[in-house]
Write a structure and sequence with these properties.
alpha/beta; Rossmann fold; 9 helices; about 35% helix
């Protein structure tokens, strides 16, 4: 039986509303790693509905998506022709030793236990291969988002539970490497970008978050109605400009 995931019930919202990643992230990944994505073998772990996996494939990589949630994996397969897909977790990667050039975690490393995941990453990477972790982070000080994180904390009674990581809503990402790789340098790149989306797509984005499934439907509906009113105050034409900082960290296997 497949292991359950916090995202099992959020697949449709996730696939519809989550953003892709800016091209500069993939350019910097190649620069930091010293390897081209074209022709490379990539394991995209915690792949979700395949957003990053498809972008990696578009760069010419042969991608195997690894995902714990069966509903997420089904969605990924339906949307991602040519991307390999296997069910599994970072703690026990269903891949051969030294079989991939890159292991990527898009919006996912904060869920892993580094002391379990890092040895698996080391095992499946070819010598000189690279671990890459990246996140899209909403710009917290954008005028329309002021107070949003506090409203989320009030809704859920504190910061979200992000698995094995204590990352708060407004804390920058980091790559915890556990005891095996703690001595290795992490090369970091960050870029800022934005995208316009219909207001209801922004509401769907809120509903795609891991904590959304844990809120009573009536409370969530009230919260979303209040957010609609706030957003319309900032974007009366109904098009929300989402602003992001995208963070990349790359670690090369010795």
């Amino acid at each position: 039986m497949a292991e359950s995931s916090k995202f099992d019930t959020l697949v449709s919202a996730y696939a519809k509303s989550r953003p892709t990643y800016p091209a500069e992230i993939f350019d910097s990944l190649q620069e930091f790693s010293g390897r081209a994505l074209s022709g490379a073998r990539v394991a995209d772990v915690g792949a979700g509905t395949g957003i990053a996996a498809r972008q990696l494939q578009e760069r010419g990589a042969a991608v195997t998506a690894v995902e714990l949630s069966e509903p997420m994996l089904r969605q990924l397969v339906s949307q991602s022709p040519g991307v390999g897909a296997v069910m599994g977790s970072a703690n026990a990667l269903p891949l051969r030793a030294e079989s991939v050039d890159f292991v990527t975690f898009a919006q996912a490393w904060h869920w892993v236990d580094p002391d379990l995941a890092v040895p698996e990453v080391i095992r499946v990477l070819k010598p000189g291969g690279a671990l890459a972790c990246f996140w899209n982070m909403p710009t917290a000080d954008a005028s329309w988002r002021l107070g949003y994180n506090d409203r989320i904390r009030e809704l859920i009674g504190g910061d979200p539970d992000y698995g094995n990581d204590s990352t708060a809503l407004d804390q920058e990402p980091r790559i915890e490497l556990g005891s095996r790789w703690s001595h290795l340098p992490v090369e970091v790149f960050q870029t800022h970008w934005s995208r316009p989306v219909p207001l209801e797509d922004r509401i769907t984005n809120i509903m795609s978050r891991s904590y959304a499934s844990e809120v009573e439907p009536e409370r969530m509906a009230e919260f979303l109605d209040a957010e609609r009113a706030i957003l319309l105050g900032h974007f009366p034409d109904g098009m929300v400009v989402e602003e992001y900082a995208t963070w990349l960290g790359v670690v090369r296997r010795p």
